[in-house]
Design a protein that fits this description.
The protein is an alpha/beta fold. The strands form five sheets. An eight-stranded antiparallel sheet has the order 3-2-4-1-10-9-11-14, with helices on one face. Strands 5-6-7-8-12-13 form a six-stranded antiparallel sheet. It has a five-stranded parallel sheet with strand order 18-17-19-20-21, with helices on both faces. Helix 11 links the parallel strand 19 and strand 20. It is globular and about 75 Å long. It binds fructose -6-phosphate. The site of fructose -6-phosphate has 14 residues, from helix 9 and helix 16. Fructose -6-phosphate binds next to helix 9 and helix 16.
């Protein structure tokens, strides 16, 4: 939600800003704007709608040349996605421009104060109050650095702010409070952005600002201070992927490309983390063996697709490490007043590492002395930095709004964590662990094979493009897969889709079954120890008897489903707890193909943002 870019350097500033904003499009937005400081003063252009609208306006009437600038994509909160409400907003009589990600909670109070002082508002946004106030503070303090320090003390809520001023034509100042901001370092030019993808084309050396920090950049310098004005030393890191990884590379959509990257995503999550067949998680730091032995409960917090990966993790960690595991939707976690103390390990799962709900759950855990581990895909992200230890999934950038390869990587990250805890706590023998790691290491090749066999599901999706409702059933680890299949279909195709635990069918959902209703059933392996396979086959018979059209996702060689399913989609053989990594693939492909057949934008479905940075 909202993308922010700042630049100080010799390149074509507007081009750098537009290029950066293009890379941040995936976050979701509905208007965009840029501002530069040139010989003629502060020049700004902003437009409702997609980046293309802004770009063509800038082509028709270019902004003057400039050595600094700021750019923004806005996801509307206060006021609709109009030209007026788009950022930047101006202050100090048009001598200052400001962009903002987040929400200024005390904006009504500030607005009243500023109106009283004679300021005029041209938008409905909370941001304009911050811009006008910064302008007044600049007049009072004489420079952007001091004005920003004074401004952050007046704002409530969460924010990343970037500002430029006519009097300081080589300075961009950024501030962040509970919202991300990264600096990109290069020779003779510096960058600020909400995500490294905005500047990775120019530099892979980055620093993530901590909470309540301010960065002041010029083409040749970067200074970072706290909200108290004191300098903050910090470390840079090297981004592990390059700009090409964040490009479509000939695929019809980012989502299609990212699904094709499933095998590499899984391989990268495993890389270096299995040594002699045993898990080796060097990055756990202070979550050492003694700490993990002292833990008496695990809580996993996440949202959406990440929460479904958490559910898979719950089955695996409880089975292997024999420790109670609870999964919470992150936004519900603190409100249920969970029992959490220093013997609780709270694992947060987040692709972006910026999901506000998940971040607040981690915060709650920290306040209650829990030990915290995050499984994140984005280096330097807020949740990763807030947690005691982080296991990066290294799935590569995920640009499509709907999460696909990151889900597989999250599941694998959790499986590795479960095996590690089991090993430390002595609940599994090394041989038993090796059986699992061998199966884990086979997954990338199995995924390659599986992805090369998806023509049947593509045809099915095309044939079903007029379908109005699809149900998904699963049991055990197949249940979160069913939920994920339904979520992906509804968010991409806008088709009504529901996922159910197959055992729940007769307690209500079976009433939905009528002739022709399409039902996907994720069938557990016949080798499942608890005999769930037979029970799910009975469920299939029950719904077939009522006229449902059954599409089974079942392992290769499972003949028991053949007489009852209308169609069987095969997945390669693996251990039952690892099945979600494979069984989710046809469901992702189905959602992708069906949305494509309907002519929809699969990368940016309506109303959705990739990075949900508000609660
Ligand atoms: C669905 C999807 C979302 C995210 C959720 C959490 O396709 O992408 O449900 O999984 O918003 O996002 P992260 O993992 O970034 O915390």
């Amino acid at each position: 939600m909202c993308g922010i870019v700042g630049y100080a350097g010799p390149r074509d500033t507007v081009e750098v800003l537009l290029e950066g904003l293009g890379r941040l499009e995936y976050r979701g937005y509905d208007s965009a704007g840029v501002a530069v400081v040139g010989a003629e003063g502060v020049s700004s252009r902003k437009r409702g709608g997609k980046l293309g609208v802004l770009r063509s306006s800038l082509e028709d009437a270019p902004l003057p040349e400039s050595g600094i600038g700021i750019g923004h994509t806005r996801w509307a909160t206060h006021g609709g996605p109009t030209d007026e409400n788009a950022h930047p907003h101006l202050g100090d009589g048009g001598r200052l421009a400001l962009i903002h990600n987040g929400i200024v909670e005390n904006f009504a109070e500030l607005r009243a104060e500023l109106a009283e002082a004679g300021e005029t508002f041209t938008s409905d946004t909370d941001t304009e109050a911050a811009a006008l106030l910064l302008g007044r503070l600049h007049r009072e303090h004489g420079d952007l650095r001091s004005a920003m320090l004074a401004l952050v003390g007046r704002l409530e809520g969460q924010f990343t702010l970037l500002a430029v001023h006519l009097d300081e034509p080589d300075v961009v100042v950024g501030a962040c409070h509970n919202s991300p901001l990264l600096v990109g370092f290069a020779e003779g030019e510096q960058f600020l952005a909400s995500d490294v993808s905005a500047f990775v084309r120019y530099t892979r050396t980055a620093r993530a600002l901590g909470n309540d920090e301010i960065a002041i950049i010029t083409p040749t310098s970067v200074e970072v201070i706290g909200f108290d004005g004191e300098p903050i030393p910090g470390e840079t890191f090297e981004v592990t992927w390059d700009a090409a990884a964040a490009e479509k590379g000939g695929w019809s959509s980012f989502m299609a490309k990212e699904v094709s990257e499933d095998p590499e995503a899984v391989a990268n999550t495993l890389r270096g983390r299995i040594v002699d067949g045993l898990p080796s998680l060097g990055e756990l730091g202070s979550l050492d063996d003694e700490t993990l032995r002292g833990i008496d409960r695990v809580q996993i917090v996440a949202c959406g697709t990440a929460a479904y990966s958490a559910m898979v993790g719950e089955y695996a960690i409880e089975t292997w490490a024999r420790i109670p595991v609870e999964v919470d939707l992150a936004h519900e976690y603190r409100y249920r007043d969970p029992i959490v103390d220093e013997r609780t390990l709270v694992i947060s799962i987040s692709q972006s590492g910026e999901t506000m709900d998940t971040k607040m759950a981690v915060q709650h855990a920290i306040e209650h002395s829990a030990r915290t581990l995050s499984i994140c895909n984005t280096q330097g992200s807020t949740i990763a930095r807030a947690s005691e230890a982080v296991l990066y999934t290294h799935a590569g950038p995920e640009v499509a709004v709907a999460s696909t390869k990151a889900f597989l990587a999250q599941v694998v990250g959790l499986l590795l964590t479960g095996l590690h805890i089991a090993r430390v706590r002595g609940t599994m023998t090394d041989d038993a662990i090796r059986e699992v790691t061998e199966a884990l290491e086979a997954l990338p090749d199995q995924l390659r094979t599986l992805l090369s066999e998806q023509d049947e599901i593509r045809e099915l999706a095309q044939w079903m493009s007029d379908t109005r409702s699809v149900l998904f059933l699963g049991r055990h680890v197949g249940y979160p897969v069913a939920l994920e299949g339904a979520l992906k279909l509804k968010e991409l195709s806008y088709i009504h889709a529901e996922g159910f635990a197959a055992g729940e069918l007769k307690h209500g959902p079976i009433a939905l079954i009528e002739p022709g209703q399409v039902v996907f059933v994720v069938v557990p392996s016949p080798r499942h120890q608890q005999g769930l396979h037979a029970k799910v086959v009975s469920n299939i018979q029950e719904i077939r008897a009522r006229g449902a059209r059954v599409i089974a996702v079942a392992e290769a060689g499972d003949a028991a489903v053949l007489p009852y399913a209308n169609q069987v989609l095969r997945i390669p053989l693996t251990l039952p707890l690892l099945e979600p990594v494979l069984s989710v693939v046809p469901l992702h492909v189905f959602a992708l193909e069906l949305a494509t057949a309907k002519g929809l934008d699969v990368d940016q479905p309506r109303n959705l943002a990739k990075s949900v940075t508000v609660e």
